[in-house]
# Entry
Amino acid sequence: MNLTPKQLRILQLIRDWRVRRGYSPTMQELADEIGVSKVTVFEHVEALIKKGALVREANKARSLSITEGVAVPDESRPMRFPLVGKIAAGYPIEKVEDRDEIDLTDFLAPKQDRHDSTFALEVDGDSMRDEGILNGDYVLVERTQVAQNGDRVVALLPDGSTTLKTFFKEDDHIRLQPANPDFEPIRVKFCQIQGIVRGVVRRY
# Structure
C-alpha cells in the first residue's frame, strides 16, 4: 500500500491509541499530535479510507479503526510496543494505564499480522513462577477476548482488577490458576479476557 509519511503516522497513532486506551483519537487529537490543521487530517483520513487502510462508522465519535488485515509498520523501531501498565501475578491489582513503551527489537518479533494487536505488560508478583514467568518479567500479550483452557491470560475481574493466570472454563465458573503453590486459584462466574500471553522477556 502506497502511503505518504503523514498517512503512515496517522495509522500509527490510531493503532497506538486503540491499544493503549481502547478507543481511537478524534480528528482534532490527530491534528494536535501531528501538528497540522483538522482539515488536513480529514483529507488524509479520507484518502486512507479510499485506499482501504481505514474504516469509519458513520455518525459515531472515535469510530476510526484500521482495516482488518492491514499491518502498520514502525519504520525506525518495528519492535516498539506500548507498555500499558503492570499486571498482577500475585494478588490482583488495580487496573492502570501508563504512557510508556518497551522496544523489543533485540529480543523477538511477533508475526507481522499480530503486531498491531500486541502490547507489553510488566509482571508484578510470583504466582506464575512455575510457568517461568517471574516478578519483573515482561509479557507480550496478543489482544483477544477469547481464550481456551490452558491459555495464560490477562483477565479483568468483576471488581475491576486485572491478573495474569492460566485460564480454565469449568462447569459453573472460571478458574484462573496460578503456577505457584503459595497462591490459591481465583474462581469467578465471569471475567473479561483482555489477551493471551505470547512471549516472556526477562532482563538481568
Q: What stands out?
A: The helical segments are 5-21, 27-34, 38-50. The chain has a mean pLDDT of 84. The chain has three helices and twelve strands. The domain at 5-66 is CATH 1.10.10.10 (Arc Repressor Mutant, subunit A).
